[in-house]
Amino acid sequence: MLLPGVKHIVAVASGKGGVGKSTTAVNLAVALAVQGLRVGLLDADIYGPSLPQMLGAREKPRVEGQRIIPLQRWGLTAMSIGFLVDADTAMIWRGPMVMGALEQMMGQVEWGSLDIMVVDMPPGTGDAQLTMSQRVPLAGAVIVSTPQDVALIDARRGVKMFEKVNVPVLGIIENMSFFCCPNCGHRSDIFGHGGARAEAERLGVEFLGELPLKLAIRELADAGSPIVAARPEGEEAAAYRAIAARLWAKLEGAGAAKAGPRIVVE
Ligand SMILES: Nc1ncnc2c1ncn2[C@@H]1O[C@H](COP(=O)(O)OP(=O)(O)OP(=O)(O)O)[C@@H](O)[C@H]1O
Ligand SMILES: [Mg+2]
Fold first, then answer.
1. CB of 199 within 8 A of CB of 156?
2. Best of 23, 121, 125, 187 for a ligand 1 pocket test (most atoms within 8 Å of beta carbon)
3. Does the residue 262 lie in any domain?
4. At what angle do helices 149-164 and 127-135 cross, to 10 degrees?
5. What is the residue with the minimal CA distance to atom 23 of ligand 1?
6. What is the DSSP letter of 109?
7. Does residue 265 sit within a domain?
8. How many other CB atoms are there within 10 angstroms of residue 153's CB atom?
9. pTM (2 decimals)?
10. 22 pocket-lining for ligand 1 (C-beta < 6 Å)
11. What is the DSSP string of 198-262?
12. Which residues surround ligand 2, an ion (CB under 5 A)?
């Protein structure tokens, strides 16, 4: 079995591209680590890896014999195909190669023992989704969606796909839920706030929370310092932490989550 030392493996997915899966995956992973958990972050986006940029991680992982040593960043153990190849290299892979690369990143990397592995999925319902659902005991998938209808249609497709392959959908997150002007503070619901919550209800899936469309989230992601680590006192970081706590409680079961002696850094 792949990843025997990992307690829970959670895929962060969406049907549609560019809705903020990678940003959400990175910040949720940091928020889980801040809770005192041992957290791994796997970039399953073989064609367009985002973790090198979003974690500010440029060095190559060490290789010891057949084993690859993952990088340590922001309290996370992280691995991405992007750590191994240059940022501008176009990745041209056939389906089976994607599966092979993913399996190697799980099987050949020294992940050690982890409480949770967050997997940043590529968009859509293709090879990577199939590999992850068939080759690893996924605890479940978290679906990220923006509130507008075209994104929700794809989110629905994502939920249905995971259900079809018997991977539980742990919940839906609404990203870019609303916009607050950095100058005047005025709030506008650019994509129509609340669509994902309504969709979650329709699908009978838990709504895990919403994240604002904020300039600082994008700027810090581009700069390689996730906002949860860089601005822990901000309301954005608090929103990510609340979603992470909800997710962890769901994984552990409400009672078990309280049982362990955990150091909480708030
Ligand atoms: N809540 C947010 N507020 C502001 N900017 C955001 C937010 N979430 C994501 N972004 C920005 O939107 C862009 C797309 O986000 P991201 O790369 O996380 O999406 P994705 O779903 O992983 O995309 P892909 O499908 O290509 O993997 C990035 O520039 C990111 O910084
Ligand atoms: Mg991405």
1. yes
2. 23
3. no
4. 40
5. 18
6. B
7. no
8. 14
9. 0.93
10. yes
11. HHHHHHT--EEEE--B-HHHHHHHHTT--HHHH-TTSHHHHHHHHHHHHHHHHHH-HHHHHHS--
12. 21-22, 50
Strands of 88-221 (E only): list them. 114-120, 140-145, 169-174, 179-180, 187-188, 207-210
Beta-ladder partners of 179: 188, 213
In angstroms, the CA 46 to CA 86 distance is 13
The number of distinct structural domains making up the chain is: 1
Check residue 90 and give its pLDDT.
72
CATH number of the domain bearing residue 26 = 3.40.50.300
44 lines ligand 1 (CB under 6 A): no
| Ordered per-residue pLDDT tens for the chain, 266 residues | 789 999 999 999 998 999 999 999 999 999 999 999 999 999 999 989 999 999 999 899 999 999 999 999 999 999 999 998 877 777 777 777 888 999 999 999 999 999 999 999 999 878 889 889 988 999 999 999 999 888 899 899 999 999 999 999 999 999 999 998 888 888 999 888 899 999 999 999 999 999 999 999 999 999 999 999 999 999 999 999 999 999 999 999 854 444 445 566 66
In-domain check, residue 266: no
Any idea which residue has 């309290």 for tokens? 75
In a domain, 259, yes or no: no
Q: How many CA atoms lie within 13 A of 183 on its CB side?
A: 0
